[in-house]
Design a protein that fits this description.
2% strand, 73% helix, mainly alpha, 23 helices, single chain, globular, two-stranded antiparallel ribbon
Amino acid sequence: MPHSSSRTEGDIISQTIGVSFALVVCCAVVIGVRRAPRDELPHPAHWALGSRGLGTATTCLLLGGTIYTSYTYLAIPGLMFGTGGLALYALVYTMFLSPLIMMLLPRLREVAAEHDLITLADYVRARHGSHPLALATALTGIVATMPYLGLQVVGTAAVLRSMGSASDSMARCVALTMLFVGLALLAHPGGLRSCVRMSLVKAVLLSGAAIALLTLTMIRLGSPGHVFDLADRRSAAMGHPFTIPAHSFTAYATLAVGSALAQLMYPQALTVALASRSKQSLQAATTFLPAWSMTLGLWAFFGVAALAAGVHTPVGHGELAVPGLIRHLAPDWLAGPLLGALAVAGLLPAVVMAMSMSMLFVRNIYVEYFNPTATPKHEVRATRGPVLAIMAGAVVFALFMKPQDAVNLHLLGCVWILQILPAVAVSLFTRWFHQRALFTGWAVGVLAGTGLIGLHGFSLVVNIPIGPVEAPVYVAVIALALNLAVAAALTPILDALGIPRGKDCTVDGRCERRGSKITFVLR
């Protein structure tokens, strides 16, 4: 009888947490749903970019809500919990984001708005006059973002697991599938406008959750200094000191810079930037982004608090540290809403990622190579299928892969996405590079980065000999350096051989939509 009584009590607790969790998530999704205005004609710029009408506040909320994902709020505390101070590189790279965005994205936004460019591949095709380079950009954006989207599902799965859902339970599979696929269906009519509403909900929920969890930490564990003392002793005992070793400086620096540059190349961040109302709105919104970094620093502290509180997670599952801390400190009636806030944090970036990938596929693959005569209305309608397929694929990706394998694929995605930086960011300031040199450099960077990652067991850094010493350097930065070196070496050779350059229609005239010379006719 006592055993039966304890089981009944445990079921009641799980149900209480589950119901409050579901209420928070469902309310957030319902608030976000919004249909397009009745008098608005279907157009990719309306659906994917919100008619380029985001003001300063909405741009800041949506940009921050998209860049700072659910997995970020779980993985960074998890790294602090498991590896110590080296995890703080993520906070450094987020601080780099503001000046980089200020330098690159307003300029890109102006060119895109002037020539009605919707996606990053649209810009590459218009700027370089190269269909192969645009196709490489589109495929890189899709393939590199898919693991990133999968990690949002992994983050939500971690939250469900902390609520008592078994890692292989059918209920967990059904819940994740319904959550993400249902969200894609609900968000589709309003496009990016639905995401704007959800960004406000996310900001409110995360701020409230951070304040509540910080209060509980102070009450139960004491002052921050005491928390760090406890965590430091336990971390030192496990061999993961909070201080950063001197020999890791180059790894730390290249990880921060490379991650910041890679973040700017992901299609979801660029989609939000292109949706801003004006260059001035985007610049003003960027000045508030450090506030998001400050909240991330607070959540990183919760990883330290989890260590101080003696939270235990399975080996290789550091992302469970913060949910474990919530279950350890919060009463049952509060644990559900706090976990629900973490789940909502992943829904917003997941939708923007799926929309961005779908638009890349429809505009730069389907229309470019299979249906060059597609109307804007048809383009918008054609995005429904890919959005659902992408969301479903992300759920399958997260459910049937080990978390470490998902992280490894995301590491590869970071290497790949950084290789489109010369064709995008560098071209905003110079057209010196030949488009074929850029394509070759992209291919070399992708192959070299993939090879280095694979040969070193999916390690983020590899040792590079610099004089008498070997310095650890982020793999993506090495691949980018090879990419730029090949492009710089080939450009004068191609010019000397008289190989014509593509037309830059962002300078020479109107950018017209035309299919590639290689078009497959579907009958």
